[in-house]
Structure formats: structure tokens, C-alpha cells
Amino acid sequence: MAKDKDKEEKATKGDGKLEKIVKAIEELSVLELADLVKALQEKFGVSAVPQAAPAATPAGSTAVAEGPAEPAEEQTTFNVILANSGANKISVIKALREINPQQGLKDAKDIADAPPKEILTGVNKTAAEEAKQKLEAAGATVELK
């Protein structure tokens, strides 16, 4: 029985490979981690941005409604749009880079200089509200759609 338990522990730990990887990642700087994420995304063709699932429509739904109309379903994904940068563009640029750390200074400046621009696409309500609060605190006008 003891041998079976040892085999299970080795199988779940991957002979220490995962521990070595985690330890190596712990020692990386934030910039190195960002580069690692980009490299993994390119290598495996994946994206860290969550994809919105298409909403399923009921099979029996028709255009004609019978009886009182049902309340509309609550929106689950949002697009954050910078409507106006306001007077303090430097703060807005800083907020844009805080919201999207992979964004360069020039990209953030271009967005702040030419509103309306879409900042985030298909994010959940909490992420959209958080981005809106940061940008409004910097003096920008933001729309959620």
C-alpha cells in the first residue's frame, strides 16, 4: 500500500517538474512574466482574454409575444469606450496603461488623443466598472456598451 501511495504522489507532482516551474516563475520580474505570457500565447496560439460565449436562443421563441413582455436579460459582457479624454490627458494615459499593462505609451496616447475609442472588448461587468472608475477618476468620460 505504501508503494501505491508513493506512486500517486509522484504522478500528481509530476516528479517535481511543476514545483521547479513554479519556483522559476516566482523569481521572474513583472516584465519577464509579461514576456513569458506573450511567448506562451504565440507558441500555443491562445489568448488570455476571455471569450464571450454566444447566447443560446430558446427553440420555441418567436417574434410575436403573447401576454406581458418579459424583462430583458441582464447584459453580461461589456465594451468600454473612451468617449472624451477630458482636460487631463496625462492622467487618462496613465489610467489606460494601468487598465491594459501590455499597452505601450504611444498606443495609450493615441487612444487618449482621438476619442471615441474602444478600450476593452467583451469584458465582464466588474472589469468594465473598474475600468470606468479608473478612467473617470482621471477625468475622462466613459461609456459602457
TrEMBL record:
Region (Disordered): 50-72
Any one GO MF annotation of this record: structural constituent of ribosome
Residues annotated as domain Large ribosomal subunit protein bL12 oligomerization: 17-60
Keywords: Ribonucleoprotein, Ribosomal protein
A Gene Ontology biological process term: translation
Large ribosomal subunit protein bL12 C-terminal domain residues: 78-145
Pfam families with a match to the protein in the record: Ribosomal_L12 (PF00542), Ribosomal_L12_N (PF16320)
GO cellular component, one term: cytosolic large ribosomal subunit
Matches recorded under HAMAP family: Ribosomal_bL12
PANTHER family per the UniProt record, alphabetical: 39S RIBOSOMAL PROTEIN L12 (PTHR45987), LARGE RIBOSOMAL SUBUNIT PROTEIN BL12M (PTHR45987:SF4)
Family, similarity comment: Belongs to the bacterial ribosomal protein bL12 family.
Role: Forms part of the ribosomal stalk which helps the ribosome interact with GTP-bound translation factors. Is thus essential for accurate translation.
Subunit structure: Homodimer. Part of the ribosomal stalk of the 50S ribosomal subunit. Forms a multimeric L10(L12)X complex, where L10 forms an elongated spine to which 2 to 4 L12 dimers bind in a sequential fashion. Binds GTP-bound translation factors.
Protein name as catalogued: Large ribosomal subunit protein bL12
